[in-house]
Design a protein that fits this description.
Blueprint lengths: L8 H18 L4 H4 L3 H9 L3 H22 L10 E5 L7 E7 L2 E2 L3 E10 L2 E10 L7 E5 L11 H13 L1
Parallel strand pairs: 4-6
Antiparallel strand pairs: 1-2, 2-3, 2-6, 4-5
Helix pairs in contact: 1-4
């Protein structure tokens, strides 16, 4: 008889889902993989472990999502037209560059905010247009910037109700 596992069911579930998510992300014939460029998939494939692959995949997805939300296109957009070259191991503030249809994203700048919380690591990304010196650079924030504010769902609902009543 084996001793009971000391890991939580969430950790266990994450471990079983992680390899299939990574595999799906890295292959062009799967929906997630279709949204990545060949160079993005190649970088993910070259990473040493599943944790690094997942981290990189989520950073890419978050950046791409920020762009299509900023442009108003939405997630029906072909995200593989966006190509982000990222170095998440870099200790510099600028960790990458984005391109659109292989062209410089002039006037655009991206922020990738890494938040480490008790229950995991999260990414927030912003895409800003009209940035005079913007050329698609991706800046990393390793702590929550002052301009980011967390709100609870209940606050959003209450505000929506107040605005609807006005």
């Amino acid at each position: 008889m084996e001793p009971p596992s000391t890991s939580s069911s969430r950790e266990s579930e994450n471990r079983s889902v992680l390899p299939s998510f990574i595999q799906a992300t890295c292959h062009a014939d799967v929906t997630v993989g279709l949204q990545l460029t060949a160079s993005e998939r190649s970088i993910i494939d070259s990473l040493a472990d599943d944790s690094s692959k997942l981290r990189h995949s989520l950073a890419l997805w978050t950046l791409k999502e920020s762009y299509v939300k900023a442009t108003g296109e939405g997630l029906h957009y072909d995200l593989s037209r966006l190509d982000f070259a990222l170095d998440l191991t870099s200790q510099t503030e600028v960790i990458g560059q984005g391109a659109f249809d292989s062209s410089n994203l002039g006037g655009w700048a991206f922020d990738l905010i890494e938040l480490r919380e008790e229950d995991g690591q999260y990414y927030i990304a912003t895409a800003r247009s009209g940035v005079e010196e913007g050329n698609g650079e991706v800046r990393r924030w390793t702590s929550k910037p002052d301009w980011v504010r967390f709100v609870k769902f209940e606050e959003v609902i209450a505000r929506a109700r107040n605005e609807a009543d006005s």
